[in-house]
Amino acid sequence: METHMQPRALILFAHGARDPRWAAPFKKLQQITQQAQPDITVCNAYLEFIQPDLPAAVAQLMQAQCCDITIVPVFLGQGGHVLRDLPLLMAGLREQYPDLQLKQVDAVGEDASVLQAMAQYCLSAMKQV
Question: Hey, what long-range contacts does 24-29 have (CB within 8 A, 24 or more apart)?
């Protein structure tokens, strides 16, 4: 987490895994996103196995006077974690921080431009083999 916090933040929320190497692309995504938007704080949070989890990430941002947080589920689809686990976490956070503006958007895999980029990668993979 950065030392200089902004009043607005973006949390990239991913599943997590036991192997810490799994998080490398998510850390890279966080760095790319932060560089593209330096006037907000961009951080990662995970459902399980890797810290910070979502409540810990929100608590850190709140301590840093952040008052507007958008959560982006970095999942391909709106599966059980996004449809069941995340709403429960969001409800708990809204109860704990009633003055916080806390928003959630659809999973990244639901976005047409993300799917288009993935399709382009898949097609280019054929040329690499």
Answer: 26/74, 29/74
Residues in the chain: 129
Tokens of 88: 């429960």
Q: Peptide bond before 52: cis, by omega within 30 degrees of 0?
A: yes
Placement of tokens 């409800």 in the chain:
91
C-beta of residue 75 within 8 angstroms of C-beta of residue 82: yes
* Class at the top of the CATH hierarchy for domain 8-128: alpha beta
pLDDT at 83: 83
The interaxial angle of helices 86-96 and 54-63, nearest 10 deg, is 30
In 3-state terms, the chain is what percent helix, strand and coil (to 5)? 50, 20, 30
Dist CA 54 CA 59 (whole Å): 9
Has residue 14 got a pLDDT over 80?
Answer: yes
**What is the sign, positive or negative, of the torsion defined by CA atoms of 120, 122, 123, 128?**
positive
Predicted confidence (pLDDT) per residue in 58-87, tens digit: 999 999 999 999 999 999 977 777 888 999
CB atoms within 10 A of CB 119: 10
